[in-house]
Each structure stands twice: as structure tokens, then as C-alpha cells.
Amino acid sequence: xxxxxxxxxxxxxxxxxxxxxxxxxxxxxxxxxxxxxxxxxxxxxxxxxxxxxxxxxxxxxxxxxxxxxxxxxxxxxxxxxxxxxxxxxxxxxxxxxxxxxxxxxxxxxxxxxxxxxxxxxxxxxxxxxxxxxxxxxxxxxxxxxxxxxxxxxxxxxxxxxxxxxxxxxxxxxxxxxxxxxxxxxxxxxxxxxxxxxxxxxxxxxxxxxxxxxxxxxxxxxxxxxxxxxxxxxxxxxxxxxxxxxxxxxxxxxxxxxxxxxxxxxxxxxxxxxxxxxxxxxxxxxxxxxxxxxxxxxxxxxxxxxxxxxxxxxxxxxxxxxxxxxxxxxxxxxxxxxxxxxxxxxxxxxxxxxxxxxxxxxxxxxxxxxxxxxxxxxxxxxxxxxxxxxxxxxxxxxxxxxxxxxxxxxxxxxxxxxxxxxxxxxxxxxxxxxxxxxxxxxxxxxxxxxxxxxxxxxxxxxxxxxxxxxxxxxxxxxxxxxxxxxxxxxxxxxxxxxxxxxxxxxxxxxxxxxxxxxxxxxxxxxxxxxxxxxxxxxxxxxxxxxxxxxxxxxxxxxxxxxxxxxxxxxxxxxxxxxxxxxxxxxxxxxxxxxxxxxxxxxxxxxxxxxxxxxxxxxxxxxxxxxxxxxxxxxxxxxxxxxxxxxxxxxxxxxxxxxxxxxxxxxxxxxxxxxxxxxxxxxxxxxxxxxxxxxxxxxxxxxxxxxxxxxxxxxxxxxxxxxxxxxxxxxxxxxxxxxxxxxxxxxxxxxxxxxxxxxxxxxxxxxxxxxxxxxxxxxxxxxxxxxxxxx
Length: 789
Fold this sequence. Notes:
This protein is α/β, with parallel strands linked by helices. Among the domains are: 5-98 and 137-231, Dimethylsulfoxide Reductase, domain 2, CATH 3.40.228.10; 650-787, Barwin-like endoglucanases. Helix content is 22%, strand content 14%. The strands form 9 sheets. It has a 6-stranded mixed beta sheet. Strands 3-2-1-8-9 form a 5-stranded parallel beta sheet, sandwiched between helices. It is globular. Residues 2-439 form the Molybdopterin oxidoreductase domain. It is found in: Cell envelope. Pfam families: Molybdopterin, Molydop_binding.
């Protein structure tokens, strides 16, 4: 989240797409209710009339996979009707930047496309630079090569008729949403966009979020209370896991992992030169990287050995995200796998094939609270023949959240400590202790090994105790970092250095433990410090800032755009920024000083990117159809995102619209959690929601001869499942490009373990992902539905 949960009460309008917070984030909805009480509006855009839709002021139906068409229409509407915050756009975005001559766009493709490789030469999208290397700009926005004019040209094609025809959203609903949300461009107003997996789990998921960013920057909603782009995380600590480098291509703190396929990454100096921009806060990357290396390798990281840089694994051209890893298992390229609190036999795309892939491993370690479907994939109850599976499975019982202590980071970026309530039962142990003892055992195993393969592990500084229990306080301090000259904990990442005299296990969290006995994630002062930001409750990264980019909430002179949305402002007497939040900016840099208006500090030019030439499929979001679609693309002849990786063969069969004419999507319910391995082992929750079901419209039910509670079979090119029909008014047929298109929806929580069981929805989903993140496309695929005999 750029903002935070409590801040939702300050919004004048909440646009909720790809999310259903009233059901999936119910506690959060108290703040949206507060916003409504304050006169705010709630808009729900969803294929299904959800619990969120039921309490919204405006509901608009949307065919799954057409978010960019919908949002592109809003961009066009805002630009054509001058419903933008122009002063904000000119000064805080790259709207006035001139794009070099290499950029072009024709029939769904940007310039620089290589059809054979399905990749772009992004140098074709470069911005024009002057002799000093700085971007050439036109503050009048009149030059036809400005980002602003190219943006207008790109979305001029997204007219109401075409958008309505593609999305299935009636024109009157489109206009109602566009008009209401674009009202937040007025000074004194702010709108927020809330999203979740319904936005990201598409082949264009990243560009869906980019479209949100464009809208919010045009309207001037980034950095303001009640504004922002706010991702509602699907688990309590997903934010923390990504912050700490569990994304395969990141080190901690979103530092890019060095790759053998990038020649410059062969040395630390080359890596830093390649990855460090000349300006913006990322210009401090060398400090973050060297401090991380010192944190991991301590005395074994010196200037002479590049601070241990060569100890880091450097993947080549292979991708190590979920889909690619399971494809490698399927092709017998991996020997073993550790699965920590994950259940891909239920949660993975094309789950039937992922179950098969596990059978090609020599060994599998599953760390979980119960025996999951994944841990039991080799048993008869899974439909497997145990005599034909040679995978040795180890099930390590893990402690539940209330049986261990430690921090989680919520969607708001708030790092909150939790204390142990009760001891674990039986042999269950905290994850941290399991990995701690594993590290100690491996250290012992590799002792005396002089091979090159062993050196990175032997160089690792594992200093969290020698017994079976890991000292969590020492882990916390390592995350924060030390000044090695004084031996003291660091006050924050501003103190990090690139000379090897500081450490930090994760630079964005530096400052949460600034001195002995002062772990700020344990802060529990619920006094409102102003603006409902509660600065003394927990710790928010970075440096306890509750609203990111809050410099943009003030004008060029440092004055709030309005009293209603004031958060920080320049105090000329004190010569510093003051207000209700920690400035996401140099607190003593005057607005009139060089760089004093660079509101988006993480970008090298200090502005937000309406035009983003780093995205894999293009600098502007463009509508493409999902991998499986019932209709052709109305905007161009390019059907699928041209930069996605297509997995061919048996591992990812593609369904045709003739055989599978119905759109399907997956979602969650309040009563179950993720793959259900926790909630289906709870008696009361199992009793409340004990059956796998599929929601279908009354119209489709009539067409198929299906009645409510009938057993039905849902099939796709990947497999089929049996479930109960829930015939409902919540789905209505879409009119798409002159034809009637039906959509169904189903929860993905069920499997064959626990008190209640049911077929797994993800047996139906395709093995294809977003072009940037590779997140699977769970939210739009084709199926057919029939009554079970």
C-alpha cells in the first residue's frame, strides 16, 4: 500500500477493482464504512455482484481480463474532459518529458518487437536527453512527442462504445464510474484505488496496476491522505515475505539479484554501475548492497573480495518463478524441494500437472501445520499409485502463528511484533528454529570442505545461537543493521555506507531497532498523532512513513494543496518539513532548493511515470485478451500479451472457445484461508462452508438444465472437477462484441485432506503468467459446464 488501512477513512471515493474487501478483508471495511459516513463514495467493479458490491454506491460489471480496456476508457475520459490535476501532472509526473524518435505504436505492438523471441528492445522507448543527460521537457505539454500527448494519442482508441463492447460493462455504468472517480481530481478531494489478486493474476497483471498508477497521477491522488494505490495482500505477511527477498529475482529490500546472463553483473563494481541510477534515492544502492553483504558474510566480506559478492548465486537465463520451477520438476531437472507453508497441489496453476511434477523429485520436504494435499500427493487418496512414485517425502510439523513470536508486515507496510501465546504441541517447531538448525547442521556438514561449491555456505555468518532455538532478537538486530566502527545499532538507512563499515540485512527496515531495547515493531501506543496515522503504533517502512510520496501532497512552494488533505508542509521558520507524517523526502530540503520538488524520490528524475519504458510489454498499458478468450481483441490484431512466455505441450494445454465457451474465474470466501489446509481442519469453519461449489447465473443454469444444488462437472483443457451448482443472481451474462458470453466463478480452497473435502478448482487453470512477474493467470480462463450424470 502507498497509504494504509486507517487512512481509507479519509477517501472521497474508493474504486475497488479485482478485490472484494467486504468478504476477504472484512476488518478493513470498517474504514471504508467510516469514509461513507464522511460522505465518501464506494465503487465496486467486478464480474460478480459481491458483498462489496452490495454496500457500494456504484456497481459496474466487468468481464474478467478486460481491466485495461475499462481503465483505458477512464484515462481517455479524464483527458478529454480536463478532469486532471494539471499542476500536479506537469510538476510531479513525466508528462512533459519528450520521448525520443525510436518510440512508435502500431496495431497492438510497440516499436522494437522481436517476434521470434517474444521480447522488445526497450532502447526504442528511450526518453530524449539533452547535452547534460537530463530529460528534454516541454512544460506546456504541447509538443506531440511529450509523454502527455502520446498518452492522449494511445488512449484515443478507447472510446465508450469499444470499451463497453470489450468489457461487457454497459455504457451508462462506465460513465457513472468515470465521472464519479474523476471528480477526485479537484483540489481538496482524494480518491483511492484498492485491488487484490483479481487485478494481478492475469497475463497483463502488472500493466493493470500500471493503469491504476496513470489514473492516480493524472488525478493528483498519489501522496495524499485518502488517495494512493493500495494493494490488499492475500495473507497477513505477504508484504513481509516480498520485502525480505522471497521473490526469486530479488535480494532483500527489492535489490535486483545479480544474474550470470547479464555481463555487467560478473563483478560487484559492474553490477553497481549497471543497477544504480545517477539520481533519485536508488542512487544509494551501493550502500544498501555492500551493507547487505557485510550483514551476511561479516569478516568474510572485505573490499579485496568484493565484500563477498561472488558468494551470491547468479542465475543464468533460466527463470525460477513458480511456473518455471514446476516445469523443471515436470521435466525431471530438479532433485528436491523444500515447501514451507505452501500447498501447490491445491494452490498452483494446472494443479493436476503440478502434482505429477512432484512425483519426479527424489525428495520433498513439506513444512506445515497439517499433512497437506502436497505432502500426501503420493497416496491413493490423491489419485496416485504409491508403488510408482519414488519421491521420499519428509513432513516437518510447524508451529502456528500463536505458538511462536516474531513480526509480520501487513498491507500497510506496518511491521508488527507478535508474542507467543502458547507452546507448540508435539514435535511442532517454529519455522525460524527449523531453518536455524538446518543451517547449523549444514555448517557442520561442510566444515573442512575446500570446494568452490562449499565456500559460500562456509563464509555465511550465522550468529544466532548454537542451540536448537534461534535467538530472534539477534535476527531483528541484524535486519536493522550496525555501525561496525562503534558496534552500535543504526538509526536508519541514512547512516548506511558503501565502504564496508555498516551492515543491514534489509535496508528498508533499517531504523526499526535503532538502539538496544528499542524494537519499534513492538510499539503499541494507540494515541492518534494526527491524521489517524498513529506514528507510535508499530513501525512502517521506510523510516516509519505512513503515506508514501507525501511530498506530492504539497505544491511547489511546500504548501498543502488543501487544508482538507494536508499531511506534510514546509515550515520556513524551522527550515524543515513538518506535519502529521514522517516526510517521504529529505526533511530539511527546502522546496526552492535544487531537487526540492522531486516528489517521487525513488525514481531517478523525481517524478511519477505515466510513461514507463522498463515494462516488458510496453511503456503504456495496452489491452490484450487472456490466454484463453471467447472473443478476439477489438483493439488490435495482437490477441495475447506479446511478451508473455508460452509454455507449449502437455504441460499447458490451451482450450478453444468452441469447446470451452464459458469464462471462469477463481476467488476466496471469508470462511476459508488460501488452499484450505488450515481452515478445512477447523470443525466450525468446515461446518459453515463445507462444500465445493460453482456460482453460475440463472440464465446459464436454464440454458444447461441445471438447478441449484445440482452436482455439475466443470471442464477445461487441463482437466475437470465436480462441484455443487450455486445458481445465483450475482452473475449476469455479458454482452461482448455482439454476443452473449457467460461467466462462472468458484473458490479455490478445496482439496482431499481435512474435515471437508472437494475437488480443486486449480485443476482447471492454465500454466501461464504475467509478462513481468510470472504470476499465474488464475482469474480468466475458459471452461464448459454440464450436469453430472
